[in-house]
Design goal:
Layout (H helix, E strand, L loop, with lengths): L8 H15 L11 H8 L3 H14 L2 E2 L7 E2 L2 H4 L2 H9 L8 H23 L1 H10 L7 H18 L3 H9 L1 H11 L3 H19 L3 H30 L1
Antiparallel strand pairs: 1-2
Helix pairs in contact: 1-3, 2-3, 6-8, 6-12, 7-11, 8-9, 8-10, 11-12
């Protein structure tokens, strides 16, 4: 078995600070404690802390001001894709509306990369989707298949930026998809999308593929909101 290498101290410090930002311990526009105090709180050396702070500054989480306290930036408006990637890896600290926002983004992007993929490689996409007719009624199987489909579509689109954006949220995508596909109605909706997209691929109808993706992404957003409301109701 190949084990993942342990996180470096600077990476651990960075991760703990991001969790503190998301949990509101260090809110937006607040300032961080002095370097010596913060290093003690995190259990790292000051050089290690400086390395972590430089990484956070690079992605837009904080503003390091020489001679003045380090400021927590408005990372939603001043951050980079690095912020989004880091948030998606801190699944236990996600803002409540983060997943719906991601699904709304997918609603914008997926129809575009699906149309491009069908324009360029309809045969390959159609062959892949034909195999999806045999998907078992299992959340993990649907999660793996759905992730693979969207990866293939972004790559086939010819625009690597689509793939980079999708890859940024890979871990979160798969975690949330397992919850989503645990519901039979979610699997049923995706089966219908796969059939419709396969038909569009066979007829080389890129516009129909785009419309199918738009409907499916809109439905997945609505289903996620419904499932989340159902879970909240059960907890009351």
């Amino acid at each position: 078995m190949v084990w993942d290498p342990p996180a470096r101290p600077a990476e651990l410090a960075e991760s703990r600070l991001i969790a503190a930002f998301l949990d509101g311990k260090f809110p937006i526009q607040s300032t961080l404690p002095p370097e010596r105090e913060l290093a003690i709180q995190l259990g790292v050396t000051r050089p290690t802390l400086r390395e972590a702070l430089q990484r956070l500054a690079r992605d837009g989480w904080i503003e390091i001001r020489h001679g003045r306290p380090t400021r927590v930036r408005d990372y939603w408006n001043e951050g980079s894709l690095g912020v989004l990637g880091a948030i998606s890896r801190h699944i236990d600290h996600l803002p409540a509306d983060f997943v719906p926002h991601l699904l709304s983004l997918r609603l914008v992007l997926a129809p575009a990369y699906t149309r491009l993929a069908i324009e360029r490689f309809p045969g390959g996409i159609g062959d892949l989707l034909d195999s999806y007719a045999q998907l078992p009624e299992d959340p993990d199987a649907f999660t793996a298949a759905d992730w693979h489909l969207h990866r293939v579509l972004t790559i086939a689109s010819g625009n690597p930026v689509f793939t980079l954006i999708l890859n940024t949220f890979g871990d979160l995508y798969r975690t949330m998809a397992r919850q989503y596909f645990a519901a039979p109605r979610s699997r049923q909706a995706s089966r219908a999308f796969y059939v419709e997209l396969a038909a569009a691929a066979r007829t080389r109808d890129a516009q129909a593929a785009e419309r199918a993706a738009a409907r499916a992404m809109s439905e997945s957003l609505e289903l996620w909101q419904t499932l989340r409301s159902d879970r909240s109701g059960h907890l009351k």
